[in-house]
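Hey L., structure's done. Input below.
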Amino acid sequence: MPSVPLWASAVVTALVGALVGSFLNVVVYRVPQRLSIVSPGSFCPSCRRELAWWENVPVLAWLALRGRCRTCKAPIAPRYPLVEAGNAAMWAVIDVAGGGRQVVIPLCILSSTVVTIWLIELDGHRAPRSIGAVGTALAVAATAVSTLAMGHGPLAGVLIGTAGGIVAYLVLVAVDRSASTWAFHGRTALLPAGPLLGALPLAAALAGAATIVVATGGAALAGAVASRAGAPTGYRAGGDLAPGDAVGCGGACTACGSAGACATPSSEGLANRRLPDLGVLAGAVILGGCVAVAAAVAVPPTSWP
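Output:
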């Protein structure tokens, strides 16, 4: 059976990555609002009109519509095509780094899972555990099928990495059990981070893990320094309201019946709320993944699982 040229494999992978990127936009928008990701089909957030099939073509549709809804002319955020194009580029790079091996399939799934978590966190929501769990499960299943079909593969490393990611996540949950604190913002990304590193050669996995630890520690240190400089009134160092704390509203809102003080964050507080640790763990995992993939390219092909 003739082998497919690497450039052709990368092009096909990029096209699939763009389609998956379009789906990621749906997940990022709907999941925090507890909407179904299946039904209805894609729609304009402003006029709620369901989009035609050609309006869902990644990147090209946004360019053809000049970034506006065809019906109500409301602007379409440029983040949509950027996510589609970015996911396509990420998948193509992973495919080239992996030499077109089947191991790139779980790597692509896990990378997109981490990016999805990061985008949800950037929007100010907590990424549900289900996103990390589903992405990790799909990657493990893909690795198992590939290993069984080829007779070799990174299944053992992926399983070990999955266990490590779960343990790391549970440790942070045990340390921070408060439903209101953001001290470990983006920790859900640790679930797919484990198998992602486990699928790579050992040297690349160690480089990625070290980067994640250093980046997370650096961000935590920066957040601690920023907190000593002072936080908005009524907020803890991590940027959240402390239980029972009050923020004076001067009777300007209705949440407290115009009593003049309530536990509703002021607009200024919301603006400054999560700046020190915005998506810190998810961002660290993305950085660590980039370092790991780059290191994987540098190692001999024979060292790949």
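The chain has two domains: 1-100, 102-225+272-305. Residues 231-276 have pLDDT under 50 and may be disordered.

-- N.
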